[in-house]
Amino acid sequence: MTRLRLIAALALVFVVAAGSPAKPMSSANVTVVVENLRSADGDVRVALWSAADGFTEADSVVAETKEKAQFGSVILRLAGLPTGRYAVVSYHDENGNGDFDRTFLGLPKEGLGFSNGAWIDLGPPAFDEAAVDVEAPNEVIIVKLRY
Question: What CATH number is given for 27-144 in this structure?
Fold first, then answer.
């Protein structure tokens, strides 16, 4: 191939690539069903993280929402999330103070749950223990609270 043909071929590749629309990022609507609420007091809060780095730290939350508590279960919805891997944490803010209350030993005073049924041992579970893949346009994740 002559140098001129090579240059023409490369130019064609760049023109075609530049004219190709970027693949749109898929998004999903996530429904989180929080089960095992012991009362209708306060609120139920849900937060999602997308990486192990910063998991359970407030400044690393990707999305969050809250709903009024109901005895038994509550449904919370998060719309337009990029598809990917998320870990979900939910708690029952029974006194409605906006904080996750703990005993003087650091143990939970309010209901707490993670996706995949992951649970704390001597601290929160690892991100991978709680992570779920959100790939479909509409995903449902169930979190069971423990008190």
Answer: 2.60.40
